[in-house]
Amino acid sequence: MGKIEFNMENWDKCICKNCPTQAESMCVKEKKMKAMEMMPKIKESKMMPKPEMVPGMYCANGKGVCEDVDFSKMCICNECDLWKEYNLANGQPMGYFCRDGEAK
Q1: Is the pLDDT of residue 70 over 70?
Q2: What residues contact residue 52 under an 8 Å CB cut-off, 6+ apart?
Q3: DSSP 8-state code for residue 102
Q4: What is the dihedral of CA 13, 38, 46, 1, to 10 degrees?
Q5: What pLDDT is recorded for position 54?
Q6: Which residues of 54-80 are buried (b: 16+ CB within 10 A; e: fewer)?
Q7: Is 59 in contact with 82 (CB distance < 8 Å)?
Q8: What is the pTM of this model?
Q9: Distances (CA, A) of 4 to 1, 93, 94
Q10: What is residue 52's DSSP assignment?
Q11: Going by C-beta distance under 8 Å and a sequence separation of 6 or more, which residues neighbour residue 89?
Q12: Segment holding 91, helix H or strand E
């Protein structure tokens, strides 16, 4: 398992934006909206925003900054292509990267 890069290719594979743990978070909703507004410029320039600006890719960049995420909801990290590609089942932490930090 190697370090997961915070890049556009992995962003396209990321399913954090659909995770039930974030579904009711106002903080995440605001970040999603801003990220969607920025996405055309981001893709055009091929430059990634700072990790704290987008709600996702926690396996690459660590804990989320939103404090209203509901960890009683089921995490879907194990359904992500990045989970399979980077063999995250054999790493630490075991999912809930938004709560527990980046994959190692």
Answers
A1: yes
A2: 65
A3: S
A4: -30
A5: 81
A6: bbbbbbbbbebebeebeeeeebebeeb
A7: yes
A8: 0.85
A9: 9, 14, 15
A10: G
A11: 78, 83
A12: none
Would you state the structure tokens that stand for residue 57, as one six-digit string?
């890719």
Q: How confident is residue 1, by pLDDT bands cut at 50, 70 and 90?
A: low
Give yes or no for a contact between 97 and 58, defined as CB atoms under 8 angstroms apart: yes
3-state helix vs strand vs coil in the chain, percent to 5: 50, 0, 50
For residue range 79-99, what is the model confidence (pLDDT) as tens digits?
999 999 999 999 999 899 999
Report, as an integer, the average pLDDT of 39-46.
Answer: 78
CA 104 to CA 102: how far, in whole Å? 6
Judge whether 64 and 58 are in contact, CB under 8 Å.
yes
Chain segment 55-65, per-residue pLDDT in tens: 889 999 999 99
First to last CA, the chain: 8
